[in-house]
Structure formats: C-alpha cells, structure tokens
Amino acid sequence: MSRQDYMNTSVREPPLDYSFRSIQIIQDLVSEEPRPGLRPLRHSKSGKSLTQSLWLNNNVLNDLKDFSQVVSQLLEYPQNLAWIDLSFNDLTSIDPVLTTFFNLSVIYLHGNSIHRLGEVNKLAVLPRLRSLTLHGNPMEEEKGYRHYVLCTLPRITTLDFSGVTKADRTTAEVWKRMNIKPKKAKIKQNAL
C-alpha cells in the first residue's frame, strides 16, 4: 500500500482500541490485545496497524512515559495519529508528547485529574486540533474555563462535545481583554 493510499483510507479504519483494559503503563500496550471492533483492523506487512485512531480510555494511566516509542511499535504511520482518547484515566497534566503528533485533530482528556488550566497552553502548537474534551477535570471548576480554552485554542470547533459558536468566540475575546494582561514589550534604552 502506498503512502497516498494510506492517507486516503486510514481515516475510515476502526480505532486501535485498548479501552477498559486496566492498563497502568503505556508499555503494557505492546503485550495487550486490543478490543475487537465491528470491523477488523487492517495491518501493514510489518504487522502494524493502519489506523489513525488510538483509544486508551477507561484505564488507570497516570503518565504517558514512552508514548512515542510504543505508538511507533503499534502504528505503521505514527506521525499520522489523528485521534487519541485518553479519557477516564488518572492523568494530572497534559503530557508534552502529545504536541509532537502534529496531525492530532481530536483529543479526549475528560474525566482525568488535570488541575491547572495553564496545561491547555501546551496544545496551542497543534495546527489541526479541532475537537477537545477536558470536562470532568478539576480545571473545569476554574473561573473562565471555557473562555480560556477558546482563547488559547482558537481553531477548535468542538469543546467538551459542544460546538463552538461565533458568540462563544466573541465572549471569549471580551473575557480575554478583561482578564489576560498583554505581555509588555521590553523597551531597550540606549545607553548614552
């Protein structure tokens, strides 16, 4: 299968689904069998999955140590990972490793233990991110949660399974002007 064929067909491939497997560490994925789906997974000649979706929801992960290496063992084209479901785990932060997968368009992180709203800043580098879930994390209780996320990630179209409207964007911009201080430019003073 050519790379172009992969790009055209893998979006329709079922996910590599490791949900509800009591997985504690990412390395366990290598020895764990994915859940069977309605349609069989297709694999490359090397035995790696041709999907762009990885579901790790409803496990007990508290970090993503070795995530890149393990994903490279599981997926034929790890750089094309487009959807990652990490919902209902024990994650306390957004691991920067996610920002290395530039084709991510869907990230589910709801139902974890992420406290700091500033963690969202890490995802701003993902150019294709369109759908994000963070509800059910302690950060959701912070004042201005939705506005902050929408200001930080202006390209997303769905937040917490709810569509982002023009009114949401306008309100978020007003909130930003009222709550986020602009960074002051440092003025160099010429020495006399």
Structural features, described:
By secondary structure, the chain is α/β, with parallel strands linked by helices. It is about 20% helix and about 10% strand. It has four helices and seven strands; from the N terminus they run H-E-E-H-E-E-E-H-E-E-H. It has a seven-stranded mixed sheet, covered by helices on one side. Helix 3 (about 145-150) packs across helix 4. The longest helix has 14 residues, at about 165-180. The chain is elongated, with a radius of gyration of 19 Å. The mean pLDDT is about 90.
Set out the fold topology:
Elements: H1 3-9, E1 16-17, E2 53-55, H2 67-74, E3 83-85, E4 106-108, E5 131-133, H3 145-152, E6 158-159, E7 162-163, H4 166-179
Parallel strand pairs: 1-2, 2-3, 3-4, 4-5, 5-6
Antiparallel strand pairs: 6-7
Helix pairs in contact: 3-4
Shape: elongated
Helix percent band: 10-25%
Over the alpha carbons, how many angstroms does the gyration radius reach?
A: 19 Å
| Cα-to-Cα separation, first versus last residue | 68 Å
Number of separate helices: 4
The helix/strand class is alpha/beta
Strand order of the largest sheet: 1-2-3-4-5-6-7
- Tell me how many strands there are: 7
pLDDT averaged over residues = 91
Main location: cytoplasm
Keywords: Cytoplasm, Leucine-rich repeat, Repeat
Organism: Prolemur simus
Subcellular location: Cytoplasm
